[in-house]
């Protein structure tokens, strides 16, 4: 049996990938995340300067998660049915480029809303990236493959968000969106050269048959609730209204870049340390609880930040703490399941935490409109505190 006909459950890689194939996939993955995040730090200030209300900014930010909530699971089902991943990579890149283009159209709030919703389509293609990249590795190296591609996702986000402030500072707001168009189209062309056999790549598919059993598993429900709360905090803070707080304190576009770096680098470090070093030594539930505790403190501390240096400190600690619990919850979601049910569990988990991506900034936008910007951070702190209490309770039950 040739490598192309084997499945990713076999001991040999499903795809006989060369070093060049690996390098190409790494570049494509970085471009994918750069395209989606190259405007994230400047989007709230850009919309505020364009005259849009805090409520409308929250709706636009939340639409990214709303789209994923609706299509992420069905897209995974379709990808598994076709056993083809590359077409979904192409859809992701093209929708990402088109998303950036829509942001450049002036004079209506509908274009930013459509652009952000389309970026949710782009993000929903991520499952196809992970399945195809896993096929480049032997089954006993699956954890290594996922660790590598997770690190690449954070790396792409960091590069994109770092470029965002620099481009806006050197040129104007549209520079980030135009660069995003170029990145997306370049990624689209490079995906054409990504290696995938004609017959596709099989895996234990997302199954409607298993879904009923999976969603009734208490551990998955608990982890999904915690992830909804955790993603609500993330999309209220750094991926939401933190840039507005920074501009309120007088940050220019270069200083926005510094705040992004202060958050993302500790976030990436925590993602690497959480599962490999901290959880095996202290326990996954304990580290998750510590992450939510620190996140609650730092999110509320943003309310009392009177200077950019203070805000940067809160972002560094918050980035690390959020990296801890988001990384661990991802592993805890699928850990109890047999191999043939893990794709279904992961599909449900990803669709579930999209609720947080939507609800967090959506609710914070309404609160910010009525009670001021700091009210949204109080909400984020309350979400993190609620997650801490639930984690502590379920930790006791799990032990």
Automatic annotation (TrEMBL):
It is a multi-pass membrane protein. Keywords: Cell membrane, Membrane, Transmembrane, Transmembrane helix, Transport. Residues 21-399 form the Major facilitator superfamily (MFS) profile domain. PROSITE patterns: MFS. InterPro entries: MFS (IPR011701), MFS_dom (IPR020846), MFS_Efflux_Transporters (IPR050189), MFS_trans_sf (IPR036259). The chain crosses the membrane at residues 23-42, 54-75, 87-105, 117-137, 149-169, 175-194, 219-242, 254-275, 282-304, 310-334, 346-364, 376-394. Pfam families: MFS_1. The keyword Transport applies. It is found in: Cell membrane. The keyword Transmembrane helix applies. It comes from the Bacteria. This is MFS-type transporter YfcJ. It comes from Paenibacillus plantiphilus. The gene is yfcJ.
């Amino acid at each position: 049996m040739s490598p192309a006909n084997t499945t990713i459950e076999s001991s040999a890689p499903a795809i006989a990938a060369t070093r060049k194939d690996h390098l190409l996939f790494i570049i494509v993955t970085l471009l994918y995340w750069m395209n989606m995040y190259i405007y994230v730090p400047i989007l709230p200030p850009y919309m505020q300067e364009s005259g849009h209300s805090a409520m409308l900014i929250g709706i636009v930010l939340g639409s990214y998660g709303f789209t994923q909530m609706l299509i992420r699971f069905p897209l995974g089902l379709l990808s598994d049915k076709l056993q083809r991943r590359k077409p979904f990579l192409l859809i992701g890149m093209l929708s990402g480029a088109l998303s950036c283009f829509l942001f450049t159209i002036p004079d209506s709030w509908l274009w930013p809303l459509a652009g952000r919703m389309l970026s949710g389509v782009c993000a929903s293609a991520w499952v196809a990236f992970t399945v195809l990249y896993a096929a480049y590795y032997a089954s006993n190296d699956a954890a290594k493959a996922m660790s590598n591609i997770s690190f690449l996702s954070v790396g792409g986000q960091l590069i994109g968000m770092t470029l965002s402030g620099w481009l806006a500072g050197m040129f104007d707001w549209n520079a980030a969106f135009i660069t995003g168009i170029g990145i997306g189209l370049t990624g689209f062309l490079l995906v054409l050269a990504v290696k995938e056999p004609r017959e596709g790549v099989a895996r234990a598919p997302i199954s409607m048959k298993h879904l009923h059993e999976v969603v009734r598993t208490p551990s998955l429900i608990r982890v999904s609730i915690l992830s909804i709360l955790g993603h609500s905090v993330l999309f209220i803070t750094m991926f939401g209204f933190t840039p507005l707080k920074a501009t309120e304190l007088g940050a220019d576009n270069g200083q926005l870049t510094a705040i992004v770096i202060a958050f993302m680098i500790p976030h990436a470090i925590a993602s690497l340390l959480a599962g490999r070093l901290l959880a095996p030594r202290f326990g996954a539930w304990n580290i998750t609880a510590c992450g939510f505790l620190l996140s609650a403190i730092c999110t509320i501390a943003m309310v009392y930040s009177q200077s950019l240096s203070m805000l940067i400190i809160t972002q560094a600690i918050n980035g690390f703490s959020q990296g801890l619990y988001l990384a661990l919850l991802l592993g805890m979601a699928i850990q109890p399941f047999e191999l043939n049910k893990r794709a279904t569990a992961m599909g449900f988990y990803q669709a579930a935490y999209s609720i947080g991506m939507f609800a967090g900034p959506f609710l914070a936008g309404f609160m910010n409109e009525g009670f001021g910007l700091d009210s949204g951070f109080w909400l984020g702190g309350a979400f993190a505190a609620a997650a801490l209490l639930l984690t502590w309770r379920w930790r006791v039950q799990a032990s």
